[in-house]
Amino acid sequence: MPLTMPLRRRSQRHSISRGWGSYILDGCPTYLYKTVNLERYEITGDRLVPGRHTVRYQCEYDGGGAGKGGTGRLLVDGAQVAEGRIDGTMGYRISLDGTFDIGSDAGEPVSEDFHVPFDFKGTLDNVVVELYL
To answer: What are the distances in angstroms from CA 10 to CA 57, 65, 89, 95, 115?
Structure first.
């Protein structure tokens, strides 16, 4: 059975308008980035075949200061399945009181595509977050 796993970072107060998340909805891996109701960037791969998978999101930032854009890539089992351009990022913190949820979403979602409660019913073997500052 394909995985349905939300992994998201959002603002408590304004999450429907800004934030980011990685999740699998209807079997399709998705990355979403929203900037204060101005822009919505969504990168979605094809439906996964049943079985165990490694899903990864990578961003190649343009650099040159805060608020610049980049290219986002979704990989499944090491192979790129989707790519998209993010024209600009928020040049400041998204939220000081937001949460980082793995495997469930009980608050206001970053995406209008799913409704809470949104829980993963399987087993997550491993979650890795790498930050390059």
So the answer is: 17, 22, 14, 7, 15
